[in-house]
Every structure is written in structure tokens, then in C-alpha cells.
Please model this.
Amino acid sequence: MGHKPTITDSLQFPAESRLPQILFGVGGAGLITSVIGYFTDADHFFFSYLVSFTFFTGIALASIFMVMFHHITRSKWGVVVRRIPETFGGNLWIWSIFFIPILLGMDTLYHYWTNPLAFDPTSPEYDKIVAGKEAYLNVPFFIIRQVVYFAIWGYVGRRLYKASIELEKTGDWGITTLMRKLSAFPIMLFAFTIAFASFDWLMSLDPHWFSTMFGVYFFAISFQSFWAIMILMVYYLHSKGLLKNTIGQAHIYDLGAWLFAFTIFYAYIAFSQFMLIYYANLPEETLWYYHRMEGSWKYILYGTLLCRFALPFLVLLNREQKHRKKVLIFVASVVVIMHFLELYWIAMPMLDKHGIEFTWMDISIFVGLGGVFFGLFFRQFKKHSMIPENDPKLEACLEKSYHH
Amino acid sequence: MSTKETMTNDSQELYGILAEFKNPKALIDASEKVVEAGYDKFDTYAPFPIHGIDKAMKLPKSKLGWIVLGHGLLGFSGAIAMMYFMSVIDYPINISGKPFFNAPAWVPIIFELTVLLSAFGAVFGMFFLNGLPRLNHPLFNIERFKKATDDGFFVCIEAKDSKFQADLVRKLFEEAGATHIEEVYD
Model:
């Protein structure tokens, strides 16, 4: 009490670390290997790519969202870990080039509505339901929307990152006003763009189906796994001997509590979407779940219920468990794996209709995109301090201590 | 008019000894001394929550969480049992071909009853652990104790403490820097 907290750790990620290069190497190798898969099974290639792309993009979007509400609410709890999501979000503008393969694969992924015959009433391939959605589901408008999304995300993510770096360099606390301005209105834009992006990327794979909850569902799954990634990142830094005294038990407890809270939020949203469709029992809605409960697909559905809700909920229910290293690493890893499987379960049944058909491409593309995603992260993370120095709330954050 | 304060006689039962301290810091220090001296039937009173007082008093972790968990599980299993009895045993109705054991449709009911009983457990468990409701408390016999809602910081060691000896308690409070010490009669 009373004494000013002092930082005893080095705040610089080791400059000599070759981690970004290693990750880029792994990522490049993964992606190049996957290109072979494109020539052997192009359909599977594009679907696998979509799953991994939405996985990592979802993490980056959740990161920007977390930074925004941290600024808007003038929070102090997460200042020491804020640079991690800031960096994820700050890279989103470069990351957008990895959307190009999805544009190239549109004829495969979104063949229901990229086929012009589907809109032609005289054609035998005419699809009345899809034709009714032509105003939204057409290729030019799809591409325009993607440009708008990534322009907004890339710009806001970059500006928030830059503002934080500038505050660190200049120590000008007036920049916090800019940060709040960059967060207040854009957070609303984010709500819309994330929802519509999920409609575009995942829901329009099966344009006969619709769920008005799908946007918040995509947000809920991404945001839950974001906290799991944050926990794993912090423990990774600790394992390298970094920020061991700066990110303390109180901060880790907060991350554990967030993971717990958004486990419940995830379950609430995912189950609500399922239950409304199950209860109403309308054929055009139930069919989507019907396909996803066929054959071995149902194991992923039950797996999410058990491993993504029941397990984290019961394990983290006790307060003491929310800061135990082994418990958190275990739960966070399970959540991250289940997040991948759930995205897989959303997208893949369009291709493998009667059961799971894992291919090596699912792994190689995930490793490839993951290597690039984290390579970009550590390349940027190395350049500046690992925590936002000179932030007005930093001291209050460091002062936090865990009460037993 | 407070007459009880002056009416201290042997026919009344001693409840404990109350000491007033100047400020929250003194209260925390005094609680630590009381714990050190080995008393465990004592309590502290202050107009506002004091950070760290539970630590100074060496209070064990509240049992409330377990009470809530018990009630929550009761609500959970009670809801399943209720729905099972109603929809499977007592009055099964075929609703759009769904099974009688219609688990997804029961989830809202199971959830609500779990939350309801957990909330009951939390509120009434808190009452129970605090010995509430009660109509009066011996400390209210002390005129000075009214300051506990304004600017008074008190410690009271109860007479039922196994180590309680009035003169020793008084001495401890004096050493701890109490500004006022008085006996509380029931």
C-alpha cells in the first residue's frame, strides 16, 4: 500500500529472437505444401482455407474489439496485456491479402449463388430461394463488401495500434481522448461488419439457410477463443522469462474470469440459435443442423457442448482455478482446439455431407496461416515495448493484487 | 435516554467488551493484535467496508459458495425430475414428433430453476450465516455504538470466547490504543 509499483522486467521482446522468421518459415512451408493440395483436391483446399482464415481473422477482430471497449470504458484492469491485442489488430491490414484465395475460390465455396444460372428462371438450374437473395448474394457486391470490411478493420486496428505507440513515445496523455474517439463509433461499425462478414463467409455457404443470430454466434465463438489465446500468449511470454513480474496473478485471474464469462456467453448464444430452430421445426431452418448432426458430424456438435461449455464452465467455476497455470493452459488449449473444430463443423458439411473427412490439408493450411499470423504478430511485437508504457492507467493496473 | 448504559449490574449477563479505535488503520492493527492474542469470538464494526480487514481478522473463506452450489444442483436436478415426471410419466404428449424426453426444450426450465434456487441459496444462505433475521443485538445497548454507522471503528470481543477474561481483554485494548472501552451487557 502506498508505494509506487516499479517494473523490474525488461519490457522489450528479445531483439535477437528469430521467432518471427521461424514462424514465417513454418507458415510458408505449410502454405506451399498446401498448394500441392490445391492441385489434387481444389474443393477441399478452399474449404480448409476458409476455416483457417476465419479462425485467425476472428481472433484479430476480437482483439480490436477488446481494445476498443477497454478504451471506451476507461478500464485499467488490462493495460499490461493490452499490447498483445493491439498488435493482433494492428496487423489486420496486411492480413487482408490472405483473403484473396477465398475470392479465387468463390466458384467452389459459394457455387450456389456464383452460378448465374441459379438466377435465371428459364434455366433448369434456377433456384428460387437463391434468386430471391440476388440483391445481396452476387459476386460484385460480395467483393465490395469485403473491401469495406477490411478497410474499416485495417484502418481502425492500425490507428489504435499507432495511437498506443505514440502515447508510449511522447507520454502525451491527451492521446487517450483520440483512442476513445477511435473506439466509440467504430465499435458500432464493428458490430455490423463482423455480423455481415460472418453471413458472407460462413452462412452464405448454404444460402438456403439463414439464422439472424449467426453474426453474434460468430462473434461469441471468436471472442471466447480470443481469451483462450490471450491466456496462452501470456503463459508463452512467461515461459520465455518475459514480463514475469509485470503480468501478475491478478491480471491472469482477470483473463481467466473473462474466459469463464464468455464461455457462458458462447453457450447461451450457440444454444439459443440451436434451440429456436429445433423448437420451431421449420424445414428450411432445421436442415442446416440436420446435415451437421449426420454421421460423424454429430460428435463435433456434442464435443462443443462438452469441451467448449461444460468443461471450462465446471473447471473455472471455482475462483481459485481462474489463475492456476496448469488448469488455465489446459482449458484454454481445449477451447482453441474446439474453436477450430466448430468452424470446421460450420463450413465443411457443405463438402463432406455424410461425415468428417479430415485431410492433411486441414492441418497444413492451419499451420501455414497460423505461422504467418503469429509471424506478423511477433515481428511487430518485437519493435516496441510489450506493454503500453506511459499509459495513464498503467500504474493502477500494476498495483492490482489478487486477494485470496 | 439511554438508561441501560448506567444500569450495569450483576443480574445482567456480560455480552462482551467493546473498544473504539480512531481510524481504519488502528482498527486493522487492533484486529491483528486480537487474533495474535488468540481470541476467535470477536467482530469488528465500521461505517464502511475496510480493505484488508478480513485478512487482519484471519477470517476463513466464506462457506456461502458451497451453499449456493448445493442449491444450484438441487434446482438443476429438481427441474429435470419435474419435467421428466410431467412430460414422460404423467402426461406424455407428442409435440411435432419430438421425443418425450425433449432435452433441448427443457434447457430453459432447467436453467431458470438452477438460477432461481442458486439465488435463494445466496440470499437466505447469507441470512443464515449472519444469524439474521434478529430483532435486537446487545451492542445496541451502547449509546456510543451508534457511531459505527458514522465515524466509529469498533472491536468487540465476546464473553463466550474460551479465553475471555475481562481484565485481560481491557488490557489488550488499552495496549492496542483504544480510545474508549466499555462492557456490553445483554
